[in-house]
Structures are given as structure tokens and as C-alpha cells.
Amino acid sequence: MPQDSNVASSALETAQLPVHMTMNASSFLSRRQVLGGAVGLCAFGLAPLVHAQSQDPIVLVQTAALTGPLGDLGQEFSKGARAYFDALNARGGIGGRNVKLVVHDDAYDPKKTVEIAQGVIASNNAFAFFGTFGTPNNEALIPLAQAAGMPVLMPYTGANSVRSKNFSGIFNLRASYADEAERSVEHLATVGIVRIAVLHQNNAFGKEFLAAAMTAMEKRGLKPVLVASVENDASDVAAAADKAATSSAEAVLLGLAGKPAIETIKGISQRRRGLTMYGLSVLGTAANIKALGSAGTGVAITQVMPFPSNASLPLVREYQQAMTAAGVSEYSHQSLEGFANAKLVAEGLRRAGKTITRSSFVAALDEMRGYNLGGITASFGQGGVSASKFVELTLIGTQGRLIK
After folding, report:
1. CA within 20 to 30 Å of 242's CA: 121, 204, 358, 380, which one?
2. pLDDT tens digit string along 142-153?
């Protein structure tokens, strides 16, 4: 990870822990399959925890894409979380203990995620995983964390595969991709647009979105006029864009992220200017919007956080103050999400009691109902189900900026 001032601070460190195990393809598949089972039966209170009763920092570990085509997402999320934890630590932390965020760059590679997770677990000096990035990455990491008795807090993915009601110690704040798909389809149906195409990434993330979009349309008696996939390297974008542009679609739902999303939007725009497109929250970064240029104008993007410039909300005001104190003047939905997730974790730690253990912390979050973060509310207690259902639509305006 580059030593950049945007991602390095006293509360955010980069480290590479030793790798003690390897994972072959068959074991990787079996661990992903574990997600469908009741792995939440692991007893978190039985897992050893170093320094649980001392004044040493409470260590949270994030493995995320900090480089590569999705690097801006991971960096923005970490930037917001860092801003909250820095502000928290400046006020004395949790009962006099600082919260320390250690961030690893996995470049969105599930195999590297597994290596990092194995090293973290073997070192036995981290309290929990936090903000772990990506659908396939979390599908690989969660079984390892469950077996080790480590909570996984606020993973950065909207996939249903990490939202099982059977999970224990897996806590999601953000609304799911299914919630985002539902919001887009609901809006389209409300304004009378019923001929809808679906383009999705050919990976776990894209397939999750496709299933969610199909469910949302079936609910309204609709069928897609086109379903097409796009490879992760965007090598087949031209074919997918041609199919969408020449179809009878009035709107296109995009279950895409990074380069596939950008190149697909550009391709469709070149072939059929004005065709309505709806993207997911993972699309709405400043870097993506800049890369889209004029092709992005009019593209709708669902968001799982309030507008980061809406200072009428207490959460946003607190976020803006912390970001300013951290020397950051650019606001984003992604850094606000990192901030909100960090704030929610801190509240769980406060409620965990004077002697914080994994067991008391998991119990505290499981009992949380209707906690007002200052603009959105969080309710846990249903396994890995999302604590928030907040989704709103934004639009890329003519000036190349998101508007409501």
C-alpha cells in the first residue's frame, strides 16, 4: 500500500502479516460453500483474545482493494473510517483504549484476501475484521473468521451470500444489492418504464445482482428484454454494449463495477445516446465519474448512505467535521460509509461493557435496535441481515458531479 497521507495516520497502518497456510482451488470452493450452512454456531466467547482487559489498542483489521481498478473505493472507505477513529481516539477512545485500524491491500484478489486473513488469525492480536472489501473476497474470508471466532464487521459488499440469518458475529450495515436493485426497478416501474435490460459482471458480485434484479422485476410481473454478462477484464464490453443499444430496452440496469462499468457505459452511450442507465453504489466514486466524462451524464446511481454534503443531517455534520480535522476537503458516499461503519462499531464497543470481549461485543450488537446514527438507523439481531435499508437515487449531472 502506498504511504499516502490519505490512507496513513496514527490510527490507520499498513502491514503484511506472515502467511502460515496456503489454499488450493478445491479448498477455496468448499469454504465458499460453507456460507450456505449454519456456520454461525461458532462460540465467539471461546476464541482467545490477546490484551482483552488491558489498555492496549483494540485492533481492527481491514483487507481491501487499495490498488487496481477498485482501489478508489477501498481508499475512500478507509479514509472515512480513519477520520472517525482518529477523532474517537483524540477524545480518549473506548474506556481509555484507542481503536487501531490496520489495513492490508488485497487488490480485490480473493486468494490474497485468504492469505492476509490466515496471517491475521495466526498472529492472534486482532479483535475483529472490519470493512472487508468485495463479494468473492468476503465469501472466502468469512468461513475462516467464523472458524477462528473473529467477528466480521461491516463488510463492504451488498451480496446476500454474506447476509445469512444463520450467521453469528457477521454484522452488515449497508443495504444489500437486492435492496439497491429493488429501488431502481421500483422507480422505473413507477415512471412507466418496463422494458429493462440487465448487464452484469461475470463474477459472484454480478450474479448476485442479476438474481436480485430478476426478483425485483418478477415481483412486478416484468421480464428483462435482455440479460448479458461482462467479463472482469472488460474484454467483451463492445458485444454487451451492442446488445443493449440494439435491444428494445428503455433502461439498462448495470450490475457492474470498476472498468467493466465505465467501459460499458461509454460503449452504450456511443451507440445509443440517451438510453437510461442505472448503476450501483460501487459505481459512484469521483474517479469513476471523472473517467466517464460526458458519457456519464444522466446515469442514475443508487446510494446506501445519505448525500455527503447534506449537512442538515447530524451524521453528515459529524462526518464533515472529522474529515476537515483530518485535512480532507473532498466528501464522498464511500468515505461517509466508512465513517458511519466506524461509528457503529464504536457504539457496539461502548455497549460491550467495561471488560470488552468478543462475546460481549457480539451480544451488544445483536441487541441493538433502532440505533440512530444521525441520518440512518441500524437494527441488528437477525444474523447477517443488513441493519439498514436506506437506499436513495442520485444522478450524474452535466457538470460531472452527483446530484439528488
Report:
1. 204
2. 999 999 999 999
